[in-house]
Structure formats: C-alpha cells, structure tokens
Amino acid sequence: MGRLLRVAQAIDDLSEWIGKSLSWLVLLTVAVGFYNVIARYIGRFLGLQLASNGLLELQWYLFSLTFLLSFPYILQQGANVRVDFLEASWSDRRKAMISFWGTVLFLIPFCVLGLWVTVNPVMQSWGLLPDGTWGRWEISPDASGLPRAPIKSMVLVGFGLLLLQAVAQAIKYWAVWCGYIEGRQLPEAEADLPPLE
After folding, report:
1. Which tens digits make up the pLDDT trace of 167-188?
2. Which residues contact 76 (CB under 8 A, 6 or more apart)?
3. Would 47 be classed as within a structural domain?
4. Contact in structure between 183 and 95 (CB atoms under 8 Å)
5. Most buried one in 60, 142, 175, 190, CB count within 10 A?
6. Count of domains observed in the chain
7. Model pLDDT for residues 53-89, shown as the tens digit of each residue
8. What b/e readout covers 110-132, taking b as 16+ CB neighbours within 10 angstroms?
9. Residue 114 lies in a domain
10. Contacting residues for 35 by C-beta, under 8 A, at least 6 apart
C-alpha cells in the first residue's frame, strides 16, 4: 500500500503544480480579453481594425485550457460538489467507501469513455485522413484564425490528467476505507472555517 500511496502523492503533486500554474493562465486570459475589448472599441472610434480573430480565438483557447486542465486540481483539493447533508454524519471510513465506489464506478469509466470518444476527432484535427494518410491539420475558418488541432488535443490531455487524479483519489479512498491512513484532510480554506452547529 505504501508504494501505491507514493504514486498517489506523485499524481497529487502533478495536479497541484498544474492547478497553481493555471492561475497565471487566468491572468493572461483576462489580459487578452481586456485588450480585445479595448481594441474593438478604440478601433471602432478611430475607424481602424485593431482587434483580430486570432486574439479572439486565443482568448477562448486560454479559457478552454484553464477549464480543461483545472479538473484534476479541483478533484485533488476536494472542491467538487458533494451532498453534504448526507455525508456530514458519516464516519471517515464510510465517506471513503462511498467515494471509492463512486470514483471506480463512475469517474474512471467517464474518463476512459471521454478519452475513447475524443481520440479520433483529435487525430483528424491533426490531419489524419480516413485512409490512414496525413493531410493538413485543422485551422480556424476565420481570417487570421488559429490552428484547432492543439486546443482539441488538450481535451485528451484534460481527460488523461483527470483519469490519473481519479486513480490517485481511488488509492487514497481505499487506504482510508481499509484503515491504512486516517480520513481525508480538509482543504486549508475549509479547515479554517468554524464548524457548523
């Protein structure tokens, strides 16, 4: 069990690093969005085209990256939605058992299905033709638009990282359920709150 817990810790560390790195991506997304708005209105006032489709697409690419890559961090931090009015009275072992089975029966198959369904469209966006040869990769139909293949690939990366984190969570839930480690630690922000009475 010790090796599995070390693997889970390594996955947790990866998810945490990615999650914290995404905070900078959010700032970049806001900056690009701010520029797009200012350029559109100033350009309209001056009668010039200051905004570009490439920057508009970059804005939603950055938002998509933030969205897709943050799920493992959210799961690792325990910030996902739970039915607290049921779970509040349960022991840590019972919570771990329910979470383990929920992860194994629902989250892991969902991630595998997401990967399976996404592989072909991603490969086609990179230029894989039905006959097995390679053509041009998918590009935005808009003038000065960005290639679509890299952002579509992030869907695969997002599902892959979520699957890794789901496996790590299942290992930790199993360890709590079987009594190898104590119950889940609350995220720091929640731990600082006074208890509800």
Report:
1. 999 999 999 988 887 655 444 4
2. 12, 15, 16, 19, 165, 168, 169
3. yes
4. yes
5. 175
6. 1
7. 899 999 999 999 999 999 999 999 988 777 677 777 8
8. ebeebbeebeeebbbbbeeeeee
9. yes
10. 55
Contacts made by residues 74-80, CB under 8 angstroms, sequence distance 24+: 74/19, 75/15, 75/107, 75/162, 75/165, 75/166, 75/169, 76/12, 76/15, 76/16, 76/19, 76/165, 76/168, 76/169, 77/19, 77/187, 78/184, 78/186, 78/187, 78/190, 79/187
Instruction: Tell whether 138 is covered by a domain.
Output: yes
Nearest to 177 by CA among 79, 92, 55: 92
Mean pLDDT, contiguous 10-residue spans, the chain (197 residues): 90 95 94 93 86 90 94 90 76 89 96 96 90 85 87 96 97 90 54 51
Percent of the chain clearing pLDDT 90 (strictly above): 58
Judge whether 36 and 127 are in contact, CB under 8 Å.
Answer: no
3-state DSSP assignment of residue 170: helix
Rounded CA separation 57/44 (Å): 20
Structural domain range at position 62: 2-80+88-183
